[in-house]
Design a protein that fits this description.
This protein is of the alpha+beta class. The chain is built from five helices and nine strands; from the N terminus they run αβαβαβββββββαα. Strands 1, 2, 3, 4, 5, 6 and 7 form a seven-stranded mixed β-sheet that branches. Strands 8-9 form a two-stranded antiparallel sheet. A hairpin with a 5-residue loop joins β5 and β6.
Length: 173
């Protein structure tokens, strides 16, 4: 997914008054203010109440919802290969969020997690904060090389503290 494609999606959502917060690889690059690697998709977090509007808006610009998924996560794809991974969350009156996990637990996000600011293709965007990115990358899966590199970039730029499994270290015996 190119920077121009991301900006196009974000523009369509802004015109429809659907606020989103960028997560994942593009979220990291937005914080850094530059594209550091290629991205397969665009990860978006938004209020659960805006999920249907997002789906209608993206359908209007050539996307279709993939089969599967649920209210906590679904994927929209375009015939040209663009992909948007959508993560609707419940927001409270204070701006805190809770992501419903598949097994029924809830993963809380403080309001500060959604206050990251960055840019993509020269356009200002809202994204997860550096600390929230570390939390997200530290949960639920084994990080790959691209994840470790993303976390190192955030550590170098913002001084975030990485959990041990997100640090590349030589094995010592």
């Amino acid at each position: 997914m190119t920077a121009d494609a991301v900006v196009s999606v974000l523009r369509a959502l802004a015109e429809a008054s659907i606020p989103v917060c960028i997560d994942g690889g593009w979220g990291v690059d937005a914080l850094l203010g530059e594209q550091t690697r290629e991205h397969r998709d665009l990860d978006l977090i938004l209020s659960l109440g805006d999920a249907r509007g997002l789906q209608r808006t993206l359908e209007g610009v050539g996307f279709a919802r993939q089969e599967g998924g649920d209210t906590s996560n679904f994927v929209m794809t375009a015939t040209d290969g663009r992909e948007v991974d959508v993560h609707p969350i419940e927001m409270d009156e204070h701006g805190n969020g809770a992501f419903a996990l598949p097994e029924g637990r809830r993963w809380p996000f403080p309001r500060a997690a959604f206050e990251g600011e960055g840019s993509i293709g020269g356009q200002p965007v809202r994204c997860l904060s550096a600390d929230a990115q570390v939390q997200c990358h530290g949960q639920g899966y084994d990080p790959g090389e691209k994840d470790l590199a993303d976390m190192e970039r955030l550590q170098e730029r913002f001084g975030v503290v990485l959990p041990l499994h997100l640090c590349r270290q030589p094995n010592r015996r």
